[in-house]
Amino acid sequence: MKVFSLDFIKQRRQELNMTLQEAANAMEMKNASTYLKYENGVYAFKAEQLPLLASILKCREENFFEQKISKTAI
Asked: What per-residue confidence (pLDDT) applies to 25?
């Protein structure tokens, strides 16, 4: 099962030395506080925002998802 990784988004933004305000401006959001709410999972990124986010973070949309392996009970 693949899950959306907010950790990847935050880490990638930091790797690019991009501030919250710069990310907010690039995503056409009102302010850094709004963007932070998306990055922290208070708000959910919409599917139509992912291509722009990938462009801003210089990655592919697939990078936003990680494989989650569930543990099985024995």
From this structure: 97
Q: How high is the mean pLDDT of the chain?
A: 93
Q: Which two tokens stand for residue 58?
A: 């210089």
Distances (CA, A) of 3 to 63, 69, 70: 11, 10, 12
- Give the distance from CA 22 to its chain's centroid: 14
Q: Alpha-carbon distance 56 to 18, whole Å?
A: 10
Q: Which amino acid is residue 6, in one-letter code?
A: L
User: Measuring CA to CA, how many Å separate 6 from each of 14, 31, 40, 55, 74?
Assistant: 12, 19, 7, 16, 31
- Strand-strand pairing, 2-4 and 65-67: antiparallel
